[in-house]
UniProtKB/TrEMBL annotation:
Keywords: Oxidoreductase. The keyword Oxidoreductase applies. GO terms for molecular function: oxidoreductase activity, acting on the CH-OH group of donors, NAD or NADP as acceptor. Pfam families: adh_short. Gene3D superfamilies: NAD(P)-binding Rossmann-like Domain. Belongs to the short-chain dehydrogenases/reductases (SDR) family. InterPro entries: NAD(P)-bd_dom_sf, SDR_fam. This is Uncharacterized protein. It comes from Stigmatella aurantiaca.
Amino acid sequence: MHTLHGWTALVTGASSGIGEACALALSQAGVRLVLVGRREDRLRALASKLAVPAHPLVLDVRSRPDVEAALAALPAEFASVDILVNNAGLALGTDAAHQASLDDWETMIDTNCKGLVYLTHALLPGMVRRNRGHIVNLGSVAATYPYPGGNIYGATKAFLHQFSQNLKADLVGTRVRVTDVQPGMVETEFSQVRFRGDTQRASKLYEGMEPLTAADIADVVQWCVTRPAHVNINVVEVMPADQG
Ligand code: NDP
C-alpha cells in the first residue's frame, strides 16, 4: 500500500456529501487537509472534527481570479498540495434541453468544468515538480449513460472524463496520477440542490432502492490514492446494487 504520510490534500466541495466524506477518510490516513467550499460554517465545523491539521478555505471555484489568488496564498504548511480531489459540482434542473434554463446550464459549466480546470491548472505544476501527486476527479455515470433532463450535466461529466484521460496522457513518465471516479446515485444534498430545496421530490428519487452513501465513494477514493505508486486507476464506475 502506498503511504500518504506527510501528504497534503485539497478537497473541493468539502462542506457536504462526498467531499466531506473524502476529507474524513483522508484525515484518517494522516493527510493534512485544505477544505474548499462556499459555506464557511460547514468547513469550520469539519476542520474542528479532524485529528489532522486542516485549513478551511472559503472559495467559489467558478472564479478564476479567486482560485488563483487563494491557492497562491495558502499557508506554508498547506502549500504543497499532493492530492487534489476535484469534487465540487452540481446538477440544476430536470427540464428537457428545449425547455431548460441557459443560466442553469452556464452554472453547471462554470462549476463542473471551469472550476475543475482552474484548480487543476493551479496545482498540477507543483505536483509535477515534486514528482508526486494524485488528481481525483468526481465524475458521474451520467458521462456515459444519457437520461432525460441530463443534458448539460451529463456533458460536463463527459468533459471531466475526457480531461482526466488527457491529463493522464500528459503525465506519463511522472508519478502524478489521475482518476475519474464515476458514481451512480449517492444520497447527499445533491438532489436537493438539483430540485432547488424540494426535499420531498429529492427523497422520492430513492424510493424502493438503497442508494450509495458518501462514505461508499470516499472508500473508493481512499483505495485509489493508496495503490502502489506505479498503479494508476484510470476510471472507477460505482453503482448502487439497486440501480440499473
Ligand atoms: P453535495 O450537494 O452534497 O455537495 C456538493 C459540494 O460542492 C458542496 O460541498 C458545495 O459546497 C460544493 N460546491 C458547489 N458549487 C460550488 C462552488 N461554486 N464553489 C465551491 N464549492 C461548490 O453533492 P455530492 O456530494 O453528491 O456531489 C459531489 C460531486 O459528486 C459532484 O461533482 C457531483 O456531480 C458528483 N456526483 C454526485 C452524485 C450523487 O448522486 N450525489 C452522483 C454522481 C456524481 P458549497 O455549497 O458550500 O459551496
